[in-house]
Here is the input.
Amino acid sequence: MKKEDIQNLITDHLNDTESVMRPLSGFKINFSSNKGFHNFFFAVSCTCGTSALLSVEVSENKSDNEIETAMTSIVERLIMQEKSFRRMDCKTHEYMNKGFLPENHDK
Ligand SMILES: [Zn+2]
Here is the structure.
């Protein structure tokens, strides 16, 4: 499966949820640049204007079948990150705007 196809699959799955994150394709900065992994980035924003970057990794070695099987947990990981962003109050969001990054729940 090509990276774009995986991205589309993730987006498809997110459409079935309450989630309102948007995909950031062509995002160049690679925070957790692990070789052998595709990195996918999504953004969520709050009414206060703060946005957070969500990310998930998928191994390049996974077969199409394995990716489809893993899709539920991939989407869950993104939703978990989105939820933890929405749980924070806007005061915390303000701190994030000043350069504080939330814990990465992927690790
Ligand atoms: Zn906020």
